[in-house]
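TL;DR need structure tokens for one chain.
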Amino acid sequence: MTITLYDIKESPHCRKVRLLAAELGIKLNTVVKDPRTLETRSSDFLAKNPNGRVPTLEENGLYLWESPAILKYLAAKVPERGLCGKDARTQALVDQWLFWWASGPEAAIDMLGWEMIIKPMVLNEPGKDPAVMNEAYARINRYLPVLDKQLESRDYVVGPLSVADFAIGPRFDRAPELLKFDVAPYKNIAAWLARLRARPYWQNA
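>> reply
TL;DR here they are.
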């Protein structure tokens, strides 16, 4: 059965899905849907994802959106890899870090992206609201030490490689440079990122 990913290359959320699929050897039929040209606002696409956003996954009548849910779905297709956790404890830890990331640091990174990239470059609106950006930087600076501490004695976020690494890791490839926040002080994060980036598909997926 064909798995279709509605995708745009520039989206870090879409890239998470492509990276995990590459890790698992799952072939995706990627279909570009560019929000900048309103392709995600068509009635056909909104029937698949009422939020009008990518990534959206389609398989056999299932339309799945939100990248953490898509990551868990793909990982469940290859259960022997255990990327959602091989026992209840690890599964709970994976979910803990997925929820923590999405509601905390990633939300702050997305706030910066909206102010620094989306508003001025896509919506032609004034960006870089100081109050919003200061709040986002404060949240990032509060959360990154938590992740760095977690990686102090582990190769990956929960110990073994998991979907948590694919949810979190790709956001660090370009976001610090584009959005002007510093991860250099976090040596454990840097070592973890080096391990992820050494995977053979990481640069191309």
